[in-house]
């Protein structure tokens, strides 16, 4: 409890991927801080929140870069480094990336900035599921996230098997994300997401479902086919982990 | 239209007063950018949004400081200067303060940082009402905002008469803000706000209602007594002005 007596640490959020998801991540972070204060029995007032920064940078498309040249001098890697570098200059101690696919460059960012903790969304989600005793998890994500093996690796480290839709299901997910959520057609998105999820639940039974793209939680809960499923939002878990870093000891993972 | 061909300018948001309102202001700003792109017929994608920063600093209570010592070396003035100073170091060209009461220090901030534009929420709201031809406006705000004469002065500059509740009504507004919204009791808040608004509308007729505290829009629309009233949210007007600065020429006002 001693660290509660010290002022919380400054933390940062790297967004812009897309900007609406970044804005929503700040909301989740503030909510996670409120929950932390309440759980600790501490008074909730404006001054009890940690200093936190958000930067939303115009960021080249992550999935496209992963397929072409992940280290392109004009690609997202350079922009992510720019963003984290400026956060480091601000004295921020921990940074969260408000985009699943951007975590393909996580190792590179963490290696270049050892003075701060770059949280890892998939590892945080995997730790959360491990604590709940999960042995399998369905992963719904963008093609870019599947390509990078982000959740496969993180879940495997925690002894959890990642279950994924087949190629047809992945294409349908991308349709739900790009033609659905990104175009504001939530009905189409919910239909796509539900149609991919239903046969996976039928085949694998009642396993947790990782919504591994920040667009998926915006429509998935509206699908009747998702009713009763254990939907896991990694952005919410990441927001809680960032609040944990701000208020408590920073554990580099 | 020529400025559309240049990349948008970096802008900043100073929040933490409270943090939930600051997070919501980022959402409004992103929404204002989307609206701007659509109005200009420009494609909406992640890379079309301006670089923008949010800092939420633990900030001493503004209303209390205005009553005690507005220039206290440990008061909000110093923290606001710290926040704007770091924004200036980041290369931000315009800054919005996501708190009405904090505008009591606007002149001081703008004078110290002539290299950037510190937007003024009440002046933006007044310009908006002036463009709509208003001659009177009801102002609902905190006691601190009333004390500082923020809206009185800004509206007077635009030839608009500010109408305010009496002392009893002001006390009831504070109850709605502090015992209502800040404690999560939205029913109480809506009741308080509606009871203050109804006699003002009855006395003055159909005039615009400025919700001059970021907590008021969270409950006012739920009051049946506010139905049909022309509710004006200065935070939304400020978010649009900030988007205007990012995409277009900056006009210091």
Q: Helix and strand layout, with pairings?
A:
Two copies of one chain form a homodimer.
Chain A: E1 11-15, H1 19-39, E2 52-56, H2 62-67, H3 76-89, E3 94-97, H4 106-112, E4 117-118, H5 121-131, E5 136-140, H6 143-148, H7 150-157, E6 161-163, H8 167-180, H9 186-204, E7 209-211, E8 231-232, H10 234-247
Parallel strand pairs in A: 1-2, 1-3, 3-4, 5-6, 5-7, 7-8
Helix pairs in contact in A: 1-10, 5-7, 5-10, 8-9
Output the keywords.
8 strands; homodimer; Asp/Glu/hydantoin_racemase (chains A, B); 47% helix; Rossmann fold; isomerase (chains A, B); 253 residues; four-stranded parallel sheet; Aspartate/glutamate racemase family protein (chains A, B); amino-acid racemase activity (chains A, B); globular
Report on this structure.
- 2 copies of one chain form a homodimer.
- Chain A has helices at about 20-40, 60-65, 75-90, 105-110, 120-130, 145-150, 150-155, 165-180, 185-205, 235-245, and strands at about 10-15, 50-55, 95, 115-120, 135-140, 160-165, 210, 230.
- The model of chain A has no long low-confidence stretch (mean pLDDT about 90).
- In chain A, the strands form 2 sheets. A 4-stranded parallel beta sheet of chain A has the order 2-1-3-4, sandwiched between helices.
- The first copy, chain A, is about 45% helix and about 10% strand.
- With about 250 residues, chain A is of the alpha/beta class.
- The interface between A and B is medium-sized, with 32 and 32 residues.
- Strand 2 (about 50-55) of chain A pairs antiparallel with strand 2 of chain B, so a sheet runs across the interface.
- Chains A, B: One of its GO terms (molecular function) is amino-acid racemase activity.
- Chains A, B: Belongs to the aspartate/glutamate racemases family.
- Chains A, B: InterPro entries: Asp/Glu/hydantoin_racemase, Asp/Glu_race, Asp_race.
- Chains A, B: It comes from Delftia lacustris.
């Amino acid at each position: 409890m001693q660290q509660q007596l010290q002022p919380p640490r400054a933390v940062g959020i790297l967004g812009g991927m897309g900007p609406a998801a970044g804005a929503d991540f700040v909301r989740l972070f503030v909510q996670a801080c409120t929950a932390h204060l309440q759980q600790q029995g501490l008074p909730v007032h404006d001054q009890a929140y940690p200093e936190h920064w958000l930067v939303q940078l115009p960021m080249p498309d992550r999935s496209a870069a992963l397929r072409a040249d992940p280290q392109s001098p004009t690609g997202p890697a350079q922009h992510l480094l720019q963003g984290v570098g400026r956060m480091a200059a601000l004295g921020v101690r921990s940074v969260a990336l408000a985009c699943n696919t951007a975590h393909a460059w996580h190792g590179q960012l963490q290696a270049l900035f050892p003075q701060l903790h770059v949280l890892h969304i998939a590892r945080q989600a995997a730790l959360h599921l491990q604590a709940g005793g999960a042995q399998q998890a369905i992963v719904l994500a963008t093609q870019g996230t599947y390509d990078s093996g982000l959740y496969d690796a993180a879940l495997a480290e925690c002894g959890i098997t990642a279950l994924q839709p087949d190629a047809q299901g992945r294409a349908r997910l991308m349709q739900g994300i790009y033609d659905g959520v990104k175009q504001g057609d939530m009905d189409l998105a919910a239909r796509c997401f539900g149609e991919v999820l239903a046969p996976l639940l039928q085949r694998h039974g009642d396993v947790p479902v990782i919504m591994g793209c920040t667009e998926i939680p915006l429509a998935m809960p509206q699908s009747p086919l998702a009713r009763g499923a254990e939907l896991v939002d990694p952005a919410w878990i990441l927001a809680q982990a960032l609040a944990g870093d701000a208020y408590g000891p920073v554990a580099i993972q």
